[in-house]
Structures are given as C-alpha cells and as structure tokens.
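lol forgot to send this yesterday, sorry. struct tokens for the thing we talked abt
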C-alpha cells in the first residue's frame, strides 16, 4: 500500500494501518506499507474485527480495494483460530471444525510427527510437543489458538506494589501500563497468559512486567540482555514492590542465585564450553516451578532460547519490546512460542500524554573527502560501509554538536570501537564498550545519572536496558547497516520524560552520498512508522554550530 504523507488525515490513517500492516520504507512523500499473514494474525489476536479492518481500509483508500486483496485478507483472518489447542482433563488436544484441514495435517510430515491418537474433531498432542507443533503449523500458514492453559507455578503471596517508593516519592501505575498488564492476564483465562507487550523505551515496560507479576503472584524467571539490565530490574523491584533482597536472585556470569524472582541474562543461558556442547544453564527453566517467564527485549531472543521455550509452553510467557522487528526475520517464532502481540500503542500518543519525552530527529550529512573518499570508492561493499561510517569529518561535526549542547546530558552512540576510541582520545569522553567491566559500567552510568558526568559514549552495549532518565541528546556516529530495531532503541535512550519538560534531540551523523546514507534511510523506517520525521541538514566545516 502506498500512503501519501501530505494527504489530509495521514497521521490518523498511519495509526490505523499500524494495527494490521508493516511499514516497508518511508521516502519523503510516499510511505510503503505491507499487509502480511502475520500482521493480520496479530490484529486478529488483538481483537480487531475483520469487517472493521476491511471497511476502514476501503474508507481511506483513494481507489476501490482490489478483490484479490480482500480475498487474501479474509483467508488469512479465517485461518487464525481455525486450529485450537484445548485441555480435556490431563490431555491436550488439537481440534478444528474443518475436517478436511485435519485430514491434510496427517499428510504433512512436519506436523504429523507431533499428532498422536485421533479423537473426534482432532488429535491428541503430548505436552512436550506443544511448542514444536505450533511452530510447524504456523510455517504451513495455520497459527494455533492455544487454549491449553498454564501451570500456576509456586505462589509468591507477599508480592505487591508500594505506595511510597523506597527511594522516595509516590508510585502508581499509569493507565496504559495497567491496561497492558490486564490484557495480557485476561482475567486468568487461557485466552491470555502468553504474548508480547510493545511499548517505546522510557514508557515503563519493566513496570508492565511487574504489574503482571502483581496479578499472578507466582515465582517468576526474568530473562534480559546483560548484567547491567539484571541489576536495573532488581533496583526497580526493590524500589517499587514489597520484595526484599532475599526474594530476588541474580543468575549471571558473576552470581548463580535461584530465588522466587530470578533475573538471568540470555548470555549465561546460551553459554556452552564447546560449539556443539550442551547449554549448561538450561536447567534453570526446569529447576523451579515458575509460573511466569518474562522475556525482556524479546526481539533479541537468541535461537537456543526459542528451543527451550518450545518445551515450556505450560508456563505463562510475557515478551517486552519497543519493536517486534527482528533482523533475523523470526517474528513467526515469537508469535508461536512467546505469543501474539497483546498490546501496542503509538509512540506519538504516549508523547502527547506526557508519558515519554517529545523528540526531534536530525540527520546531518557530512562529506567524505580526499584520501578517505578515494579509499571508499575502491573498497568492497562491506569495507565501504565501515569507511563511510567512520568518516573522520564526523568528529568535527560531533565537536560542533557538543558545543551547541554544552548544558545538556549527551549520549554518543557508535558501532565501531576504533571510532569510539578516537573520540575518547581526542575529546576525553568516557566510553562504555563490551570490554568495560560491569562494575565500571555501573559507576559511569551512576555518575551520568547524578549529573557528575554530562557526556558519555557507548557502543552497541548501550542499545538496550540502559536507564538514563535525564539524557536528552543522543548523537549516533555510526550504526548497524539497516537495523530498524537498533535505531528505535537508540532513540529510546532519550525518551524518558524530562523533569523540566524539555524536548529530546536525536542526531544521526551520516556520510553524504555513500552507502552510510542509504542504510541510514533503512534504519529510519520503523521510527517513520511511529510518526518521527528526520530533518536533513548538510554539514560544512567551520559553520556556526548546529541548531538543536
């Protein structure tokens, strides 16, 4: 679908389309959206009615809807829930009212190996095959409505929210946080209990996770990206809930504690001594009677954890993310194993409500010149991207931006360590990279939070789960090819509401007329879908600063 940016009602149309379509690319005047089977299944699972979808699409379309499009959407929508997993006593049954479809499944080798004894209107399925069957069926184009229910898990009766936070100040859930948690929980019914909550960084995804924990009051395993994120989760739990130190375990490379609420990293779970060896810490999934698993930054879920998740479908599973975009295109695995999208809200809607900071995005195009340009033109595609990304003139543009934002809290974010090292050496700015110890990272983050440090540099390790509420300027000096989710995460570093109500600014330094500029356009697609436009500026040496 082609959507005209200048047309009346564009923003309303974009928000409507975002419920069942995916943004493909976003040039200045025309945005391209794609309707896919998965986007329709997510819409169906979120309760969007088929006729609401089709009538809304027709009402906003300049031309009549093509009959084949309507037919395709109807077919995709019909397939959602055509197959159901249901509990009958101790048995798990795959059922459908479509006898012909059930007959076809017997002939599909990828599915038939998980089907046991036939029953009226379906087949017996072993509990351990629940996830693998759902994966196999979605590959055939039939997403399963899983009504098989969940284990309640060991009880955590004393869990609750504080009215006064431990660090001071009143606490209460925001309306959208409460709504997201309740939609996931679904009153404890089998129709809920698994799925993904999509909220921008700074909107309180951690709080939503805790709200679900409050509804369930069960032993919980939380999986997240790194040790810093583990400790941020722990700080939030201690600050805002009734849990004490003795209730929360850290399961990382540094500590191996298993407690009623245990927070682990993806890295430790996927650790193995040899490439083809066993994952030594997968036992964590079965060591305790978990009633809830929380997957933080679910769009980064490693493939081995998908495999483990396939075996624990009887546990409630909550995914948290700012974007469901996965660069490995495994969105169907998230849908079938973690669950469908349960809640999503446009970023601009939260911005207008004051729940995230207002932000403007600026792409600054920096020329690549002289010997660097000659090397760029002669390089292989991969080396050309690196050379364009690390263009030395970006350092001059960075200096001007820092001068223009002297009183602000600035994050400098980059992809290449040698580039960040050059910035550290030339400007004396502390840098956090993968080589920085957890203790040193926490000290630098704390100094930044307290205002003792006003400019901080981070590599890719700063993309996720970094709680820096007062950062209001981000300067991206280089990025990962066309990674849309990375661009969203980087903007997210500065979206927490500011105490003074000030606006955040996200700068992307891009080498003009190179592949760096081309990939920057691809990275910006997701943010364009959320309503963020990039102002383009051409940089020239020795000009009078950069307007914020």
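and heres what i got for the seq, position by position
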């Amino acid at each position: 679908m082609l959507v005209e940016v200048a047309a009346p009602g564009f923003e309303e149309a974009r928000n409507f389309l975002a419920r069942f379509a995916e943004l493909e690319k976003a040039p200045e005047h025309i945005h391209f959206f794609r309707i896919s089977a998965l986007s329709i299944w997510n819409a169906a699972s979120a309760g969007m009615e088929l006729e609401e979808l089709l009538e809304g699409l027709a009402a906003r379309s300049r031309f009549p809807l093509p009959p084949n499009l309507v037919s395709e959407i109807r077919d995709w929508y019909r397939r959602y829930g055509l197959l159901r997993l249901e509990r009958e006593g101790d048995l798990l049954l795959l059922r459908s009212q479509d006898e012909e479809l059930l007959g076809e499944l017997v002939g599909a080798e990828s599915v038939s190996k998980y089907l046991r004894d036939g029953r009226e209107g379906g087949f017996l399925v072993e509990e351990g095959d629940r996830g693998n069957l759902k994966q196999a069926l979605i590959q055939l184009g039939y997403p399963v409505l899983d009504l098989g229910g969940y284990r309640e898990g060991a009880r955590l009766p004393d869990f609750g929210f504080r009215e006064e936070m431990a660090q001071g100040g009143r606490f209460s859930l925001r309306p959208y946080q409460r709504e997201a948690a309740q939609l996931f929980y679904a009153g404890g019914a089998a129709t809920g209990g698994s799925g993904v909550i999509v909220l921008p960084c700074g909107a309180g995804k951690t709080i939503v996770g805790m709200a679900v924990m409050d509804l369930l009051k069960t032993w919980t395993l939380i999986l997240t990206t790194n040790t810093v994120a583990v400790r941020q989760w722990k700080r939030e739990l201690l600050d805002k809930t009734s849990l004490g130190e003795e209730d929360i375990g850290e399961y990382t490379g540094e500590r191996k504690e298993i407690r009623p609420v245990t927070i682990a990293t993806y890295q430790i779970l996927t650790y193995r001594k040899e490439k083809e060896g066993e994952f030594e810490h997968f036992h964590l999934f079965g060591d305790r009677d978990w009633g809830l698993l929380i997957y933080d930054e679910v769009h980064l879920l490693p493939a081995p954890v998908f495999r483990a998740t396939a075996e624990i479908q009887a546990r409630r599973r909550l995914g948290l993310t700012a974007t469901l975009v996965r660069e490995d295109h495994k969105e169907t695995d998230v849908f079938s194993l973690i669950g469908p999208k349960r809640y999503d809200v446009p970023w601009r809607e939260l911005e207008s409500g004051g729940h995230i900071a207002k932000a403007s995005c600026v792409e600054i195009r920096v020329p690549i010149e002289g010997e660097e340009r000659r090397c760029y033109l002669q390089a292989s595609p991969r080396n050309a991207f690196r050379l364009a990304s690390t263009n030395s003139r970006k350092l001059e543009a960075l200096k001007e931006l820092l001068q223009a934002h002297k009183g602000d809290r600035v994050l400098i974010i980059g992809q290449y360590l040698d580039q960040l090292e050059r910035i550290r050496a030339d400007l004396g700015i502390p840098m956090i990279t993968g080589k920085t110890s957890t203790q040193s990272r926490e000290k630098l983050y704390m100094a930044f939070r307290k205002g003792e440090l006003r400019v901080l540099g981070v590599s890719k390790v700063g993309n996720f789960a970094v709680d820096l509420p007062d950062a209001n300027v981000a300067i991206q000096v280089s990025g990962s090819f066309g990674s849309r989710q990375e661009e969203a995460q980087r903007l997210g570093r500065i979206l927490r509401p500011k105490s003074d109500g000030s606006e955040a600014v996200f700068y992307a330094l891009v080498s003009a007329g190179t592949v760096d500029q081309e990939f920057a356009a691809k990275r910006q697609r997701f943010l364009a879908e959320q309503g963020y436009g990039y102002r383009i500026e051409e940089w020239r040496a020795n000009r009078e600063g950069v307007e914020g």
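Residues 2-79 form one domain. anyway ping me if u want another try
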